[in-house]
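Look at a sample.

——
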Amino acid sequence: MSLLRQKLLEPRIKKIILQKIVKRYKHECQSKAVRSMFIDYFCNSHGHKFVKSSSVIPDANDGTYFSNAGMNQFKPIFLGTAPITSELAGYQRVANSQKCVRVGGKHNDLDDVGYDLTHHTFFEMLGSWSFGDYFKDEACAMALHLLLDVYKLRKDCLYFSYFKGDTDLALKPDLQTAEIWRQLGIPADHILPFGMRDNFWEMGETGPCGPCTEIHYDHTMAGNCAHLVNTGSPCVIEIWNLVFMQFNRLSSTQLVPLPSCHVDTGMGLERLCAVLQGTRSNYNTDLFWPIFNAMHKETGLPQYGDKTGTDDTGGVDTGYRILADHTRMAAVCIADGLLPGRQGLESRVRFVIDRALHQCHHVLNIRPGLMGKLVQPVVETLGEAYPELSLHENKIRDVLCEAEERYLELYEDGKYNFTKLLRKMPDIKTLDEEQILRLRDGWYGRPMSTHLIELIAGQYGLSVDRDIIHSLNTQPASDIEDEEFPCFTAELLNDLSITKVPPTDDSLKYVYIDKKCPDIESSISCLVDENNTLVDTVKSGVHVGVITRLTNFYAEKGGQAADVGVIRSKTGRVRVTDVQSIHDLVLHTGVVEEGTMETGQMVTMEIDQTHRQGCMYNHTATHLLNAALRHILGPDVSQRGSSVLPDKLSFEFSCVSKITAAEVKVIDTLLSGWVRGSHCLSVERKLAPLAEALQMEGIIYLDNVVYPEVVSVVSVVDDISKECISRELCGGTHAHTLAELGEICITSVTGQATGVKSVVCLTGLPAVQARKQAAVATEMCNGLEMALKVQQGQPIDLEHCLQLHKEVNHILGTEVLPKTDKDALKERMDKAGTILNTHVNNEAFANLEEELDRRMANGEESFIVAQFEVKVLPKVNKLMKRLDIRKPLILLVKATNNTNAYIAMPKSSPLPLNDFVGEFCTDVQGKVTQQETNYTVVSARGDQSERFLKAANVLQLRYGRKEFVI
């Protein structure tokens, strides 16, 4: 038995620990105390470091799902990718309570939430970790001690599972863990073996993994329910999972031992509170009762009864659970800066909010405003552990109230769509893919989101195939296969470690002299081929990875694109197209353009200066844009991502309010003023300890980013007033002064009112060219407006105006322009276009009338067929009424959405007009839409010009004889 475990079990030590922890809590079963007791136990009594919960918004490298487990923020440690100088790399023992959301992905609890007593979209995971410190003995001893002596659970109500082994992977049973539990006093009939599905944890298809031991609680307290473990029975539930990461999975069949073993444990707070508060329902605890009481008070609904299924009359308790759970989830997401929107995680937040509102309005029949009123009790129960909820309480309430207004509007439009659909298809029972697409794309009215289709369909008794919904919501994978370039993998990192490849010094990437990044001399530490294998030599035409002792290349990071360029040796040349870094190694990837490259060779590192300068200027501009947005829109602006390329930058952010055109103009003007100002604004880089940097005034940094212990702080400072315009943690490359940017402009602003918005900017020469193009287009627009301002009754130079109109529209459609200029030009061109169309139509009608009068008077033509394209149909009616009809006439008019035939016959014609029209209708499959004294109109939807002309020509041949003409 280990020394630590012996000390833990020593009566005197146990008594001291219990006095320190339990004495502080009068109501130890309440959720706040349960959470605090867990943290105090590990941090104060067992030397763990408290690390606050990460955001529920995942890191950019973690895919498109929410943070759904406590271990997410520690993945770099498990994967060996944590920067060596970062605080993360120094962790040995850690504990916390992590905010988790499970909506979508492998762990998707949404469909079950509300309909049972245990599932949630948001929950808290109490977790403890050891990173290469203690292992199985200590982890099991600490867990048992906490459950029995701190939380006071009965030992005979606990069951302990362990991994029974797997013959396919040649993995032996984890008998060590079973023996640890036995030595800790657990009876043999409470220690149970299970297989890979239940007791072997894996991060993914490859990577760290290992056996786990789960602790299950018997709600029956009978002590003889081993047969119910892992059966899904609500009588015996898992409350704690202890994962022992001791392997690295290289493939589906190959596992190798990790150089150091880790412990990852997780225990759901909601389940633990239910156990400690004597209930089998996670909802029948103090985590939810404040929310339920607020709902009861606001609505007059019966008190929450914790019922399910047929016992839940009218689905009231189900509605209670859905609304409470979804409000908690929405509040946590909004507090972390994730707002409801159209795509990605934002769309999932919207779906959850809409699902809750659907319960409010169409199941519980509650008046508007309830969800916003539930924010206060949510903050009451969670705000102490997660202060961001208290800080953003008003913002959360505002977002939910706005979301409710939007939902009610879209719901009414959606009902109208379904009414039209059912009118056309009264016997439909299931919405197939075609009908879902038609509803989504607006065939029956306003376009609908797929999740709103799903919600409303249920009200009309229609079923929806969830697989179809899922497929429509999933972006299709690209058909283009990536080229095989070397990249950092676990196997390559292991090989690099074994061969002791020295670190890369990349500090020279910041050297910038006379607006250039000078070439440097270095040596090749190693070469990596297309199979991620270390090699000594590579030949021409081969994809290669090059690691050097020194580099001046910038590796892709922080949204900034990697440098491109050339690595030259005496025997060959590599065209570098990408650069990646991990730990302190920098991998340059590209193609050997000529000759051969060898490990150990001296090389010259040459970066593409134009590419680098563009990235530098645009990265500095990204910081300016962030500062300008916060200055104009307020501190609510939360950065969600950025892309810094040599030719442009894009900046994604969320904020509650919509950006108006006036605000865009102010932001653009502010940016231009900073860049083109008469005095100098410098860009300063300073290295500082992370703790010191985070205390700097106005500092901006990103959540869920692992920063090293010493960070780079980039500030934009007024050289005269010393005012700091922008200050961010950033390792990117930047201009030295704002004057170097030369010019800046916003070219695009997109996004939802409460979702993620995106702003695109240009700097330098591209921005100058954009403003020049806008000036050219503006001058042309001025000329067009002047040409159209003629005295009434005087002719205009129509051909000149049409040419100007065409050229300006060509610029608007093909050139990148500043957004404020482009919007203003579009508005002016719309007005000019309306006036121009009037002149064009007037001239066209005058020409048509002149042509028809001439053809009516022409004795050689006995039957007239004419074509005309027009947008103003009433003028055609006036023209037809003025005409002196002396011959059969079919005037074919193509309008915006349909094709019309104006058919007229001389009054004295022996062929009745109605018979003539009927024959034409049959030929073109059209219908009579208008009948006048001297003409009839036949119409068909869409462009039917060819069909109409063919039918008119047939009638012209048949009836173009003298007897039908006066």
About this structure: The chain has six domains: 3-276, 289-473, 490-501+523-607, 613-767, 777-840, 859-964. Confidence is low (pLDDT under 50) at residues 21-27, 475-483, 962-966. The longest strand covers residues 236-249.
